[in-house]
Amino acid sequence: MSKSLVGIHAEGKIYTDKLLDTSAAAARAISLYGKENVTNGSSGVMCDENSTLICLPTVETTFRNIGIRELVGYAPIAGMQDYQDAAIRHTFADYQPEGYIKAIATPGGAGAVSSVIWNYSDPGDAVLTHDWLWAPYKSMCSETGRKLQTFSLFNENKGFNIASFEAEVREILKQQDRIVIILNTPGNNPTGYTLTNEEWDAVIEVVKENAKADNKSITLLLDIAYIDFTNDPLKSRAFMKKFKNLPDNIFITLAFSMSKSFTVYGQRTGAIIGLSSSKEVIEEFTHVTQMTARTRWSNVNRGCMQIMSTICNDPLMVESLQKERDDSMGMISKRADIFMNEASKFELDVLPYCGGFFITIPTVKPDIACEYLQKNNIFLVPLAKGIRIAICSIPTIQVKGLAGQVVEALKNTSEK
Ligand SMILES: Cc1ncc(COP(=O)(O)O)c(C=O)c1O
Questions:
Q1: CB neighbour class for 167 (10 Å; exposed up to 12, middle 13-18, buried from 19)
Q2: 113 C-alpha to ligand 1 centroid (Å)
Q3: Hey, what long-range contacts does 395-399 have (CB within 8 A, 24 or more apart)?
Q4: Is the CB of 44 under 6 A from ligand 1?
Q5: Pocket test residue of 23, 189, 389 for ligand 1, highest count of atoms within 8 A of CB
Q6: What does the DSSP assignment read for 68-91?
Q7: Which of 232, 239, 260, 359 has fewest C-beta within 10 Å?
């Protein structure tokens, strides 16, 4: 191409995605060798013991019963009222703090995260998150002229690194008046780490301390994509109660996603939920997030929102869906236990896994190790500082022995 035709902001952008590349490579291997001979730990979707994508039965039945007009019709920009209410009830469950709360529909958690980054930071601003992160945060920032800055998620005891968090928040707020902080917990992608309630107390303390000056504001963006896949999904929401009575220059936002919680990944449905002690802050939130929606994706999948409100308005369906989720989490936990036990026998360093879809092995040579594994038909995702295993998608039979194969790959790549 002799001359670039794109606007200046788009010049030089190259779209690459190691995650999708690994999934595509796994799919090619499966078509050549058969799924029983390929370990596909690339993608964050739940698969059963036959490597088949799971759609939870209560969701499937509801989906199939949605009328055609509900499926194909437009929806209000903010989502139907029933859906907004259901998203709020589902997100907070027994732990809804006092305050003004509003939900606006978004295309999945991704739409929610990008809307907050866009609306609550300025061009050129630093947005802060942990160093073990979901890679799209970075592109969402660069795409909108923000820069993603990171703090160390773990301290030397593999607990939340509050000192690193504090230092970065303080430093950034010396340079700019507002900051968006993204925390992905419970069941962080890629590590599976979940902040404890005590760690949450410390985080809130740091946030309050750094928002003392009136000219500063902090938007905390909680990416809770994996909240329903912990050992106790209800209790894992307990930290949300801590957000009551915060000053109005601290804004809490939660990225709710139906993708994992309702196993409707491709239906692109979620919500951004705002929580504030100030009515005006919530009114402003309602306007700016709807404007973003209208100008980027317009409205959200009506049929999928209807699935959620139908289920959430029926206590028996809520109960059966919860049981199905618990069973699926039981399956993931069993796989994770096998992996962790084998890993500890090999003294393989694994980041602390508390729940969610992924387990991560830290290493300095993730790409070479993953290439080695691929030669043995094992498809895992190389990250900047580790190897991510989507334990949610690997049948138990293939999890057995996997830790040993990772050890072997690391050994074989250590001299390279
Ligand atoms: C950490 C994290 N946040 C958000 C999402 C958003 O998912 P979706 O946009 O499908 O709701 C994902 C999906 O993989 C994720 O891993």
A1: middle
A2: 9
A3: 395/47, 395/48, 395/49, 395/50, 395/51, 396/49, 396/331, 396/334, 396/335, 396/338, 397/49, 398/39, 399/335, 399/338, 399/339
A4: yes
A5: 189
A6: HHHHHS---TT--HHHHHHHHHHH
A7: 232
Q: How far is the CA of 228 from the centre of ligand 1 (A)?
A: 13
pLDDT < 70 regions, the chain: 1-2, 415-416
List alpha helices for 187-301, DSSP H.
197-210, 258-261, 279-296
Per-residue pLDDT, 1:
61
What are the Cα distances from residue 345, in Å, to 340, 342, 352, 402, 414? 9, 5, 16, 12, 20
C-alpha dihedral, 183 to 184 to 188 to 189, nearest 10°: -120
Cα 315 to Cα 204: distance, rounded to the nearest angstrom: 34
Substitution candidate for ligand 1 out of 148, 253, 259, 301 with most atoms within 8 A of CB = 259
| Residues contacting 80, CB < 8 A, separation 6+ | 302, 305, 306, 309
Where would I find the H helices in 125-196?
136-143, 162-175
Which residue's alpha carbon is nearest to atom 14 within ligand 1? 44
Q: What is the pLDDT of residue 416?
A: 60
> Cα–chain-centroid distance for residue 188?
7
Tokens at residue 10, please? 């788009």
What is the atom index within ligand 1 of the atom nearest the CA of 108? 11
Confidence (pLDDT) at 18: 85
The predicted structure's pLDDT at residue 258: 98
Fill in the DSSP letter of residue 351: P
C-alpha distances in Å from residue 86, one per residue of 7, 104, 230: 41, 11, 21
DSSP state of 192: -
Instruction: Spell out the CATH class of 8-57+318-413.
Output: alpha beta
CA–CA gap between residue 27 and residue 379 (Å, rounded): 10
Q: Identify the helix (H) or strand (E) that includes residue 405.
A: helix 402-413
Domains 8-57+318-413 and 72-314 share a fold: no
Whether residue 259 has its Cβ less than 6 Å from ligand 1: yes
Question: Which pLDDT score is estimated for 146?
Answer: 97
**Euclidean distance between CA atoms 288 and 410, whole angstroms:** 48
Kindly list the domain boundaries of the chain, sorted by start residue.
Answer: 8-57+318-413, 72-314
Q: Are strands 178-184 and 386-390 parallel, antiparallel or unpaired?
A: unpaired
Taking the whole predicted model, whether its pTM rises above 0.85 is answered as yes
72-314: CATH topology is Aspartate Aminotransferase; domain 2 (3.40.640)
Going from the Cα of 174 to the center of ligand 1, the distance in angstroms, rounded, reads 31
Q: What is the pLDDT of residue 413?
A: 84
